[in-house]
Amino acid sequence: MHKPSRTMFRLALAGTSLLTLASLALAQDEGTTTAGGATVLEDIVVNGGSGGVITADGYVGKSSATGAKVDTPFIQTPQSISSVTQQQLEDRNPQTLLDTLAYTPGTRVGGYGFDPRFDSFTVRGFDVTYTGVFRDNLRQPGAGSSLFKTEPYGLEGVSILRGPSSALYGASGAGGLYNLISKRPTEEALREIQLQYGSHDRYQGQFDLSGPINEEDPVYYRLTGLLRSADTEQVGVPDDRAYIAPAFTWKPDEDTRLTILGEYSRTKTGGTAAYYYDPITGKVSDFFAGNPTFNDSVQNQGRIGYEFEHRLNEVFTFRQNARASWLNIDADWAFAYQPNAADPTLLDSSAGSFEEWMNTYTIDNQLEAKFETGALEHTLLTGIDFTKVYWKSLNGYGVTPPLDTTDPTRGRPTDPIGFQTKSVQDQFITGLYLQDQIRYDALTFTLGGRYDWVSTDTDNTDLASGALDTIKQSDRAFTWRAGVTYETEWGITPYASYSTAFSPNAGVNMATGNPFKPTESEQQEVGVKYLLPDSNTLLTAALFNIDQTNGLYYEVVDLPTGPANIQVQRGKLRSRGLELEASTSLDNGLSLIASYTYTQAKIIDGPAGTVNNDVSSVPRHMASLWAHYTMPEDGALAGLGFGAGVRFTGESYGDDANSMKNKARAFVDASIDYDFAAIDKDFAGLKLQVNATNLFDRQDAVCSAGFCYRDQGRTIIGSLKYSW
């Protein structure tokens, strides 16, 4: 999919510092409960609201702060919202973010086939890789190949808000946002270690430790980590990772909480994972298009941040969330793109090297007020947030010896490629927002608006000549949301909403050297949510219409150095569709999630030959079903659990010209687990689990924007976990 391709900043809320608020917290009367309170999720006490933590019962998410930045029941949120809960993560044992999201409605995770370099996906027909991934309710920017990698073992869950959502969150895309929720300290002791072995010599060890520091102080910790050495199905593409995530919570009273979240990871994989696409036959071959001897990608990344919450009195609660993040990626790549004119057994190849740095700083200041005006109950939220993004990219392009299709090793020694261009971009975003959730009897009205100011400076340098091109860009926009929900006495809640989004884009168009314009979108949505009485079951349905202008996409473009898959910007897209979702966890041991999505994504204004065509790699139909059953504790098979799922993706086009098609496909996943405590209480805490994805090893070709891959093949992973 992607092109083969430090600054310091201080943010403070004027007149209010964290230390001042902490001092104020200590001066408050003890015994008052926090607004929203501490959330209990499956017997684990977690942070109450600001990070978007999910309140869930098994597979069924009930509320989070993702839909409104304050903890709000899903049925009162006037947009399509769903979740991946902690129990789902434990049962499915996902190894990537894409695995984590594979069973959520509207989410297209296979558009780029097997590619461990990036977590790239779309929702409702729109790419959300750069603008729709948030971490703990704070934006996680991306540019070029600088995309933060996600380790699912470090997550408590994912909360998903579909559709434009800039009225609160500012820079975000048309499809919506995926809020990745980091593991937080627990007030009760939690300890586990786990060993895994799986396909392609995958060895992994991991641990998760949490609880109070001691019995006297209100300080809690969590330390999560893993170490992995793994090959993949593609020669020259490893999947190695080291990951560590410390966290601490200080809770001096029920009105005050400070949580510090840290993370560091190092990941090694390949610079490309593409298969060769034959332009003559129009088919994807079985040949790896890369060069195993010139195909390295190493990414180091880290983040440190905090979430502070203090209830000032019965009306006001102040929150301040902040994070500093950085990453560095260094890669070499090569890929074959056409038959050699002199020897048909050879394929001409291009190659390149790139190194990128990204530093991001973001801080969000919120003041929540709960009060009444006559018969109306208000939850008023005001806030101001700041984001600073620094991105630097060095690129070099050249050639590599042709791919010899008769050589099974595919090895072609390649000389190092020097950098030829440098791009540096500084971006600063300020957003001021206001939202009122107005409750009248069974009606909830949500009204919100936000104004963003964006300043972007871009320097492009030709390293050979020293020529410098500087571009300054200033953008501003007002975005808003209006919605209403009505909770009937039968538990059925219809809703309707209108929302908009504005997203400034980091990075540059490699073909023109110009920065990208902001992407804008608007959505109309109606739907219904049904929380079944006396049953832990949630059913939802949504109809939507989204218009987007100036979106970013990847296309193969002829550059002076040869064809390259780069980001480009388009005119207008329209997506219309239907989403159905069901989730349940019953007392009889059965848990289930199911979804169906119909999406019609069209190019309304675009390059010649694409207008009124379907958007590349967006299927009209998608469906999924996953179920897990635990045998009764008093039966002969006590301790045994089974899981099975199927993910269906319908036909789609492989390019915007709609000249080739991706055929429909279905993938089957399965799991089996056994709790040894069923044999003897002395084995309590010991659990064996085996998970399989794509059980029948279906590896069809899949093309997006004319660039082709193959689906990831079968993966089987066994894990032995001990908890105490």
UniProtKB/TrEMBL annotation:
GO terms for biological process: siderophore transport. GO terms for molecular function: siderophore uptake transmembrane transporter activity; signaling receptor activity. Keywords: Cell outer membrane, Ion transport, Iron, Iron transport, Membrane, Receptor, Signal, TonB box, Transmembrane, Transmembrane beta strand, Transport. SUPFAM superfamilies: Porins (SSF56935). Residues 250-695 form the TonB-dependent receptor-like beta-barrel domain. Its main location: membrane. Coiled coil: none annotated. GO terms for cellular component: cell outer membrane. The keyword Iron applies. Belongs to the TonB-dependent receptor family. This is Iron complex outermembrane receptor protein. It comes from Shinella granuli.
